[in-house]
Amino acid sequence: MTSICVASGKGGAGKTSMAAALASSLGAPVIFADCDVDAANGAIALGAIEKERTPYFAGPGFSIEASACTGCGRCFTACRFGAIEADNNTGLFSIVPELCERCGACVDVCPTKAIVTFEKQAGVLFVSEGRGSMPLVHAELEPGEDTSGKLVAVVRKRAEAIASNDSIIVIDAPPGIGCPVIASLTGTDLVLVVVEASSSGIRDAARLVELIVSMKRKALAVINKTGLDDAMDEKARSMLSDAGIPLVGEIPFDPALRSAEESGRTWAEIRCEATDSIRALLDATIEAIGEAGGKSARPMSATS
Amino acid sequence: MKSARDTIVAIASGKGGTGKTTVAAHLALAATKRSSVLLVDLDVEAPDSTGYFPSAAPMGASVEVKISVPRLNESRCTGCGLCAAACRFGAIIAIGGVVTIDDKVCKGCGRCVTVCPTNALEEVDARVGTTAMFRVDGLGILEGRMDIGDIRSTSVIEAAKLRAASQAAGIQVRDCPPGVSCPATHAVAGADYIILVAEPTQFSLHDLGAAIELAKSRHIPMGVVVNKDGFGDADVDAFCASHGAPIIGRIAFLRSRAESGAGAKLWREDTEIMAEMDHILDTALAGARSGGQS
Q1: Residue A138: which pLDDT band, with cuts at 50, 70 and 90?
Q2: Rounded to 5 degrees, what are φ and ψ at A181?
Q3: CB–CB contact A39 B207 (8 Å)
Q4: What confidence tens digit (pLDDT) does each residue in A25-48 have?
Q5: Spatial CB neighbours of A216, under 8 Å, sequence gap ≥ 6
Q6: Which residues lie across from B58 on neighbouring strands?
Q7: In this complex, is the C-beta atom of A7 within 8 Å of any C-beta atom belonging to chain B?
Q8: Closest CA to A291 of A299, A283, A302
Q9: Is B291 exposed, middle or buried (0-12, 13-18, 19+ CB in 10 A)?
Q10: How far is A257 from chain B (nearest CA, A)?
Q11: Residue A138 and residue A34: Cα distance in Å, rounded?
Q12: Which run of H or of E encompasses B164?
């Protein structure tokens, strides 16, 4: 089993499109693990049909029973996250769900045991089947829910349970460099960094690269949307070369790539000006996956 | 937390890369014509707002964001394990009477310190990020920035919100992180109006649906700005109509705009866009739940 994580730092850099193109070009058995649980688009990119769904519970949350609250304010003092507020009219306290970190510090100090736990479904875990019978594991977190990092771990574990020894797991990471991104990168054999050739794309990718280096992951990079601003293309190349990340290829900005999503294909399967560049960089990435995975992985070169 | 004078407009999206930061920067610029304005960058994992204002001057040194994490006084620890049992974040492990603390995953709630019967835990500061102030063209910029390798983005977001409130700007424009989970939720909490930036693609619409739900669940008024209008075939209008989200502005896709956008150059001279920004700002302030500016 070999795993490759596609990440970018900045959102909208082309992670999902790149990951879908890579997954559909791998000859070996492949499993797509969509770890962008806030905004999962892998199923759209791969035309997936749902096969299985499991509710996801994040662990208990807290609420204050108004009938038992005396308004003493000890919970308010104990909470370090500003998640407890007083009602000006009744003098009673309540929990602001979006600020509550679910630590339980308030429970310990409440003299009337007015703070109760509740278990609420925080999301859904899906196993689906994409084009070419490719298994996809993805999830949807309920808007406003916490614990996206934990759900990423659940997605990866489910993908690993489906995988066989010669499987390759393609992980589509969320944007940013925080908890769910660290959960997506942990233990992967290879990271493909998608750098958008823009001021913010380069800044965000540089922060991601620093994280990847600190986590001692092996990485490759692709620069997306080149040809809009030559200075930015050059800046992206020098950022990567300074960081010692090998560049497998560049994809020119081409609105025709948009049509892939609309016509139910991936970047690997459409014909446009960017096609040759995409083919070449997919081949180079597939070769690197083979090397990273050692003898257990047997990726074939891109077919179709 | 919020001063009575501030009107807070949060720019969010669901999907990343739809143009949140671009809209936030231009909206903040447009707002300087009517009020003191603070652009608050709450995308603390990937803060890019200052990229649009290369001449922004730092106002003093950046301020460290710290949380309190426990440190074990081994001579007092009896190994009872109550701290480990109390910790909801898996930051404390007690095996065979030996307590180990992983302060990188500690959220600093202090519960372990409270439950320890022998006062064996004391609290020390742990840095999670910074906030920094900049000033340019009559505009204040407050940037939150999480340290690389840290996971406590929400602590940095809340620290930046608190510092923003102390600036007493008439209008705050918040550039929020993508997604709909904890960082995005913290970033929009307390806002008076949410602008959701979408692009006409299937990916964006799927994620926009979740962002609309988030705004609705928080009872914050919202409107959608369609960026890169004409770039894809997805029917944003029909989608927004069926989800009860009004479209309050549009930015047409032009290759020249993509080119200048790549280098984070402001579209100051683009009168069409700047007029649209005025219109979006008017709509947001009129629809804001505090009733906009008094």
Answers
A1: very high
A2: -75, -45
A3: yes
A4: 998 899 999 999 988 999 999 999
A5: none
A6: B134
A7: no
A8: A299
A9: exposed
A10: 10
A11: 5
A12: helix B153-165
Closest CA–CA distance from residue A43 to any residue of chain B (Å): 10
Task: Tell me the CATH number at B274.
Answer: 3.40.50.300
- Measured between CB atoms, does A249 come within 8 Å of chain B? no
Phi and psi for B172 in degrees, rounded to 5?
-105, 130
Decide if B179 and A199 are in contact by the 8 Å CB cutoff. no
Same domain, B212 and B262: yes
Nearest CA in chain A to B112: A105
What residue ranges define each of the domains in chain A, with the CATH number in brackets?
2-57+126-296 (3.40.50.300), 61-118 (3.30.70.20)
Are B207 and B176 contained in the same domain?
Answer: yes
Residue B157 lies in a domain: yes
* Interchain CB distance below 8 Å, B108 and A80: yes
* Same-domain check for residues B20 and B92: no
User: 């927004």: which residue's tokens?
Assistant: B240
Residues B46 and B182 in one domain: yes
Nearest residue, CB atoms, B263 vs list A11, A39, A231: A231
- Euclidean distance between CA atoms A35 and A155, whole angstroms: 7
Interchain contact, A143 vs B264, CB within 8 Å: no
Which neighbouring-strand residues pair with B68? B125
Inter-chain touch B201–A258, beta carbons under 8 Å:
yes
Say yes or no for a CB contact (<8 Å) between A103 and B109.
Answer: yes
What tens-digit pLDDT sequence spans chain B (294 residues)?
444 568 999 999 989 999 999 999 999 999 999 999 999 999 999 999 999 999 999 999 999 999 999 999 999 999 999 999 999 999 999 999 999 999 999 999 999 999 999 999 999 999 999 999 999 988 999 999 999 999 999 999 999 999 999 998 999 999 999 998 889 999 999 999 999 999 999 999 999 999 999 999 889 999 999 999 998 889 999 999 999 999 999 999 999 999 999 999 999 999 999 999 999 999 999 999 874 443
User: Considering only residues 123 to 162 of chain B, which have any Cβ-Cβ distance to chain A shorter than 8 Å?
Assistant: 146, 148-151, 153-154, 158
B10 in reach of chain A (CB within 8 A): no
Establish whether this prediction's ipTM goes over 0.90: yes
d(CA B246, CA B244): 6
The span from the CA of A173 to the CA of B46, in Å, is 15
Domain that holds residue B251: 7-53+137-287
The pTM for the full model equals 0.93
| Boundary residue ending a domain (B83, B109, B127) | B127
Q: What is the pLDDT of residue A97?
A: 84
CB distance A214–B181 less than 8 Å? no
Nearest to A143 among B148, B217, B264 (CB): B217
Identify whether residues B202 and B278 lie together within a single domain: yes
**Two tokens, residue B37:** 């304005």
Q: Are A104 and B111 a contacting pair at CB < 8 A? A: yes
